[in-house]
Structures
1.
Amino acid sequence: MDSLKIIGGQPLSGEIPISGAKNSALKLMAACLLTAEPVTLTNMPNLADTRFLSQLLQTLGVEVYWPKGDSECRLNAEKLTSTIAPYEQVRKMRASFNVLGPMLARYGHATVSLPGGCAIGARPVDLHLQAFEAMGADLLVEQGYVKAAAIHGLKGAQIVFPFVSVGATEHAMLAATLAKGETVLENAAREPEIADLADCLISMGAKIEGAGSSTITIQGVDELHGTNHKVMSDRIEAGTYAMAVAAAGGHVTLTNAPVGALSAINHALRNAGVKVEADKDAGTIEIETTGQPLAPVNVDTAPHPGFPTDLQAQFMALMSVARGTSVIRENIFENRFMHAPELSRLGANIAVRGSEAIVTGVEKLKGAPVMATDLRASVSLVIAGLAAQGETTVSRIYHLDRGFERLEEKLSAVGANIRRTSEEDEG
Ligand code: EPU
């Protein structure tokens, strides 16, 4: 199993190109199931998760042309050979569950394994299922699978989500594009990835209004056609590198950055005393530290446009070296502080009380062996390792490979001392 070895204390300087967004790419890939014509996605991130989904799509009969390392992926779902997504594949990655809605909408039936819980929380899919029921689907949950049928097709519906869910909003929107009549999604998630998915669907002939706001209206159409769509850039990757620079010190320009999607993050970084210059037209964000200690900043995770839960771990690593105490509240997932004890191994002073972490900054972190527990937790350990004195080894980095493209290459290019090693897992 691979590990990352980091010698901390090097300031970072230069440019880091931001890749396509994992959480957008995964839903855009599922959208190919809605049409018999080819869908070409550019700016595709080469990640374990996007490759997993490509394998699942191939199991269903989708022709995928995506050479290794290429940022263009062509998907052709002209003829599906199966509408069953098996447990062995869905359990590897939760977002695989999103193939249900498109297959149900286009073929009138689909059987998809329930994804199961994951390290950061139980993550049920009840809201997804309620949306399909409201659209007239018959659902049977049996032996860990959801068997869904809508023999006469899905019908438009008024769906009011009891709380905001990114996945349920996207999944319902995908299915509603081919439902008969109008679907209105109320209390919809407003994440930028939802607007990206809507843009792609609209270019396929879907009729969608309001994506990016909390009410989305979809007029169903009889069929969708193929398209060419550029995956938006990854705001979580951009925020992660911004925090890495803030923690290690230096001056880095993020290029191909989704500038408009990063307001909450830029705001938190500025409050911590980091210089942040965003240029929307150029798609760049310049991050520069001042040499002064960072100020503590409290953050509460919240649905967009609030502070994203996917950057909470990274921000905690940053606050570990601020001067003073900050409070970080996790409001989206019930078990997303697993990085706290690992950060403590590097000398961070963090007390977790329920959904709150109280972080008292220390002057210096010290390198140590640590273990990654989930995707964003892993990268928070990399950030801490870059800021720490001495050597940090982050093991179990397969989590990291799920969501960060060429991480060590991008960080080495701006002066970080980081390398990947292969070794037996001792944990
Ligand atoms: N929830 C339910 N029932 C549902 C759906 C969600 O109870 O039917 C709960 C979840 O358990 C969670 C909350 O609602 O407590 C919000 O979950 P949401 O549905 O918004 O999250 P998701 O769609 O499963 C996506 C991202 C996550 C990101 C969240 C929140 C993808 C593939 N995943 O998950 O990304 O944290 O939105 O922004 O888009 C990551 O990339 O590391 C990651 C975990």
2.
Amino acid sequence: MKIIAGNWKMHKTFAEAKEFMNVFLPNLPSSLECRVLIAPSFPLLGSMLDRAQNRPIEIGVQNIHDHEQGAFTGEVSASLVKGMGAKFTLIGHSERRQLFHETGSFIQKKIKRALMTGLQPILCIGETLQERESGNMQKVLKMQLFEALDGCSQDEIAQIILAYEPVWAIGTGKQATPETAEEAHLFCRSQIAIKWGEAVSSTLPILYGGSVNAANVKALMQQKNIDGALVGGASLSPESFLSIIQYNY
Ligand code: PGA
């Protein structure tokens, strides 16, 4: 089953989230061909979880801290959000890596924390334009993958979702072509196979992210190794997110 995840980033007030759900929920089709996930800002989590109860959508978060609790002013623990009912967490989004200087080893600890807490990690990886143009795409993807997943068992890999998000395509309107994305996905899958075996790599969901919208999602989803999408800007409007999750109709 494909997975379509909305990443709201630092968007939406309480009233705007309510307005979104007022349109989104009544228009959700009764049967969906994909898992639908939304990651709102932390303060919206409680009300989003209440609204999503008994509906075919899963609510999660955009980040967690690697420690269980402690003196980390301004941070939020995995056990807090898990206890509230969050199902998943993004980890290592390129905005966290670039703007908040998250390192590979920090990301690795967060993956461990998420797994330990029972939150499904969505590990985000992706190269910058400069890295792609200098021929270093594969090297970068491999490094980000292995840094983040080092020490994971096959069982742990089986619980993870991977998101390939080329940094040059995020929020720029420049989406990777389905073929370009497919090539990167295939590369990531083959690296997982080398380290953790065919069985786990063939079932690992790999989402594509970067300027996905209602017009380009279908062609992306038709690629063999693209198992879903991580959607930023186009997940903010209920109409656009509804068309994305029904890309097949
Ligand atoms: P975008 O963001 O869809 O707005 O490009 C994707 C993401 O950052 O996850």
